[in-house]
């Protein structure tokens, strides 16, 4: 049955004490800008009074935030219309600053107030170019990083910090499993942060990441990192011998390196001769400790006496195995010579 109009009703509430915070970042010593969007939720026009209050202002120091319009500005806003309220933030030191943008109005004689918190964070990029990490896949790379931390006052107390990696979604799982960063100090002090790095890539990859260091009282340092894992050394060499236009094959078993099943692809690299084939070309690689999957490498020579070489790759999301395949042409067996005819 249809609902009677009198059966539905609602009660409006005053605006929340604090709206969602707006965060802006600026390089150390530079200025950036941000914007807060406000929409008139009523079907009547509003007259707005807009003000910006700094949190913990410092005597004799210019405020880090500034409303890009004079304070106490009054603005008329049409029903359901939206206005943009821009502001600026200057990062004078490695710290986090805050402010509140307040919008006051009146609706049918009832005073209303909206409060928008603003957070400004100084961000420093101390390195002129990314930290380059290079190693062959399945070869561990161990390094100590000495990271400059500009912006700390010489007489500042030692302060706790946190850190994390900013990586692309595509490579996040791979790096989380293979890259370990460990601080060599518990607090930030001086001019350098020392961290030990342990990277153990299991397959070739090329990606970038950023190490983000956060001071407890605010302020961030960003260190760009370029990671390149090259081709690993071959796991084994496979030898195949075959006669002209005759197929020969070699089989072997392979299980995953981890205690889980994993989807795989098997293929010869593009520079390998077309006379090589492998089966299967895709499937599931059983977990470690099992007999593994059976792979068959086949070779059919099409040229007399020519030795061939190719590279077989078996690839999962986490791991790569590679095999060099070498061939040798098998000379055909000649019939035994005929005995000489007896003299007449």
Number of helices: 1
DSSP summary, beta strand count: 24
Unreliable segments of 5+ consecutive residues: none
Order of helices and strands: EEEEEEEEEEEHEEEEEEEEEEEEE
Q: Mean pLDDT across all residues, rounded?
A: 88
The helix content is under 10%
Shape designation: elongated
Summary of the model, kept short:
With 344 residues, this protein is mostly beta strands.
Question: Top keywords for this entry?
Answer:
344 residues, mainly beta, 5-stranded mixed sheet, 2% helix
Description:
The chain is an all-beta fold. Helices cover 2% and strands 53% of the residues. The protein contains one helix and 24 strands. The chain has one helix at residues 172-178; strands at residues 22-27, 31-39, 46-54, 65-67, 73-77, 82-90, 96-107, 110-124, 131-136, 141-148, 159-167, 179-183, 187-188, 192-199, 205-215, 220-230, 236-242, 248-254, 262-268, 276-279, 282-285, 293-299, 309-315, 320-329. Strands 1, 3, 5, 7, 8, 9, 11, 13, 15 and 16 form a ten-stranded mixed sheet that branches. The longest helix has 7 residues, at 172-178. The mean pLDDT is 88.
């Amino acid at each position: 049955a249809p609902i009677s109009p009198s059966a539905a009703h609602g009660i409006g509430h005053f605006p929340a004490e604090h709206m969602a915070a707006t965060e802006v970042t600026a390089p150390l010593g530079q200025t950036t800008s941000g914007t807060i969007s406000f929409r008139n939720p009523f079907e009547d026009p509003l007259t707005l009074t807009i003000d910006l209050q700094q949190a913990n202002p410092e005597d004799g120091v210019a405020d880090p935030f500034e409303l890009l319009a004079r304070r106490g500005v009054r603005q008329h806003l049409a029903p359901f219309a939206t206005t943009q309220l821009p502001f600026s933030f200057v990062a004078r030191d490695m710290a986090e600053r805050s402010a509140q943008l307040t919008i006051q109005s009146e609706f049918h004689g009832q005073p209303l107030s909206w409060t928008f918190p603003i957070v400004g964070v100084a961000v420093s990029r101390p390195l002129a170019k990314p930290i380059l990490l290079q190693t062959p896949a399945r070869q561990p790379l161990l390094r100590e990083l000495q990271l400059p931390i500009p912006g700390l006052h010489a007489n500042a107390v030692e302060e706790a910090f946190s850190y994390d990696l900013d990586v692309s979604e595509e490579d996040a799982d791979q790096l989380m499993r293979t890259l370990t960063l460990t601080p060599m100090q518990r607090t930030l002090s001086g001019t350098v942060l020392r961290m030990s790095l342990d990277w153990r890539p299991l397959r070739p990859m090329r990606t970038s990441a950023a190490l983000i260091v956060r001071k407890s009282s605010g302020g961030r340092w960003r260190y760009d990192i370029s990671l390149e894992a090259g081709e690993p050394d071959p796991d084994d060499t496979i030898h195949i011998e075959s006669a002209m236009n005759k197929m020969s094959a070699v089989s072997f078993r392979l299980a995953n390196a981890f205690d889980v099943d994993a989807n795989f692809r098997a293929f010869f690299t593009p520079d390998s001769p077309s006379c090589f084939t492998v089966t299967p070309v895709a499937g599931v690689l059983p977990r470690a400790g099992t007999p593994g999957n059976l792979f068959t490498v086949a070779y059919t020579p099409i040229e007399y006496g020519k030795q061939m070489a190719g590279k077989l790759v078996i690839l999962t999301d986490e791991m790569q195995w590679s095999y060099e395949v070498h061939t040798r042409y098998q000379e055909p067996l000649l019939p035994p010579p005929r005995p000489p005819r007896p003299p007449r």
